[in-house]
Amino acid sequence: MKTNRDVQIRDPYVVPVAEEGRYYLFGSTDANIWGKGTGFDVYVGTDLEHWEGPYPVFRPEPGFFSDENYWAPEVYEYRGRYYMFATFRRRDNRLLGTAVLVSDRLTGPFRLYSDGPVTPADWSCLDGTLHVDEAGQPWMVFCHEWTQVFDGEICAVRLTEDLKEAIGEPQLLFRASEAPWTTRLDSKSSDAGDVYVTDGAFLHRTEDGTLLMLWASFVRNRYALGVARSASGSVTGPWVHDEAPLFEQDGGHGMLFRAFDGRLMLTIHTPNRTPHERPIFIPVTDRGGKLRLA
Question: What residue range is the signal peptide (predicted)?
């Protein structure tokens, strides 16, 4: 049995299963996530503090399109199966992309479902997240990485109903520098342009119907988590940013879920340094479409 301080993980993502009384904790679990990819593991627990595992849920099969940088798996129940959206670095062009995997069980094994990444082949993209709008149309919201565009972007693209491929061209939702709280990443800025980072988008519909987006960037070179809201209530926005980040103590890439006691919970990884990153869980209040750390 492990506790949170024993679990090295980035980009934590929790799937609560009320019928079992168990939480399934996914994330970037390779000891060195910046190098060769091993796969993804899951931890299973009942109290958000103690965890059994890790249990392997994905290991690449021969011929898999990537062998490096296995990042940010998110798992959704959709039409009776479990779909994992995860980031990989392609072998063919060395660019990052988000692919879709599938399994009949939360504990896997997950196998490649899409034909490689569903993000554009000539873009470096990461952190795809699934959003199903009120009309039942699935979308993927993802980051167009700063390594290509300097001012990192968050984009959205429609998906086929089976989640297997994208429909049409991605739509730009916003750039990192548009938020009032972000600052440039000094260590990466150059004569070619100032770097602003976008990471880890996650969409959440509040109790009053407001569509919010959590996303990560940097404040004075420290990882931070911000919130934007859709003025139209739809994924295409326009998106209006909160003035200040929700969390700025060197942690981010967050998501929200309901604990079994009914509390709305935020999980992020902190600190943003390998191999020291750990999951933390923070109660959050949702009042009038605004999130506050409890």
Answer: none
In whole angstroms, what is the distance from residue 186 CA to residue 31 CA?
Answer: 26
pTM beyond cutoff 0.90: yes
- What token pair was written down for 239? 């998106």
Residue with tokens 């299973």: 44
Beta-strand pair 138-144/81-90: unpaired
Task: Name the token pair of 271.
Answer: 């600190």
Q: Which domains does the chain have, with CATH numbers?
A: 2-293 (2.115.10.20)
| Burial tier of 107 (Cβ tally within 10 Å: 0-12, 13-18, 19+) | middle
DSSP per position, the chain? -EEGGG---EEEEEEEETTTTEEEEEEE--TTTTSB---EEEEEESSSSEEEEEEEEE-PPTT-SEEEEEEEEEEEEETTEEEEEEEEEETTT--EEEEEEEESSTT---EE-SSS-SS-TTS-EEEEEEEE-TTS-EEEEEEE-HHHHSB-EEEEEEE-TTSSSEEEEEEEEEEGGGSTT----TTT-BTTB--B--EEEEEEE-TTS-EEEEEEEEETTEEEEEEEEESSSSTT--EEE-SS-SB-SS-EEEEEEE-TTS-EEEEEEESSSTTT-EEEEEEEEEETTEEEE-
Average pLDDT over residues 181-194: 80
Side chain identity at 43, as an amino acid letter?
Answer: Y
What confidence tens digit (pLDDT) does each residue in 104-121 have? 999 999 999 999 999 999
